[in-house]
Inverse folding.
């Protein structure tokens, strides 16, 4: 059952579990089909979350709402906050990663200062553990795998990321530690709305374990 966080005549905001694709091409296994089974009419993808990630995602119920939301994403007025657990200790309290990104093949993205598209991620450290750091990441642009690529590029790959980390190490963790916690945007009425997705148990369990080990 997909948790619905907000719904009106224009949009549905849901808390996507990890392991479910936001791409409608996945058919009955994709998020649009699963959400549509609890509502009426066709749903339009506004933005995407990686299949391995969890958190809040928006779907439009009509073309007008889809266009209105897409314009906000294009103009970068939508504010997004992700929770991400990285390998290693990030010494700085926060900062901005400004590195161009492009696709290199097989779904893998990477930094390319000559051919990459401008990409910006702001982040702030919220908690440090032994050998790990929990951060809040705010992607200003919306490139594919942006947070994963940017944090990997500064030597701090996301925990559980089989694509951008040491697979032998990453397989020791139950999931990709990336959760879209909050999104803020405008409804067609002009009202600003902020929607928050609770941290899933699969994510919180890893954090609780690290907190326990930190006390030993």
């Amino acid at each position: 059952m997909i948790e619905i966080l907000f719904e009106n005549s224009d949009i549905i905001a849901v808390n996507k579990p990890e392991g479910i694709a936001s791409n409608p091409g996945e058919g009955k296994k994709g998020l649009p089909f699963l959400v549509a089974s609890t509502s009426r009419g066709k749903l339009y993808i506004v933005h995407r979350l990686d299949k391995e990630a969890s958190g809040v995602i928006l779907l439009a119920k009509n073309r007008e709402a889809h266009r209105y939301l897409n314009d906000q994403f294009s103009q970068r007025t939508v504010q997004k906050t992700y929770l991400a657990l990285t390998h290693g200790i990030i010494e700085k309290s926060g900062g901005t990663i400004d590195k161009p990104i492009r696709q290199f093949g097989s779904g893998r993205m990477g930094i390319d200062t000559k051919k990459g598209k401008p990409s910006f991620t702001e982040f702030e450290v919220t908690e440090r553990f032994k050998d790990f750091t929990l951060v809040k990441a705010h992607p200003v642009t919306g490139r594919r795998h942006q947070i994963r690529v940017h944090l990997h590029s500064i030597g701090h790959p996301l925990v559980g990321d089989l694509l951008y980390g040491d697979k032998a190490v990453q397989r020791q963790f139950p999931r990709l530690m990336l959760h879209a916690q909050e999104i803020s945007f405008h409804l067609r009425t002009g009202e600003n709305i902020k929607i928050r997705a609770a941290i899933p148990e699969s994510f919180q369990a890893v954090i609780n374990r690290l907190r326990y080990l930190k006390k030993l």
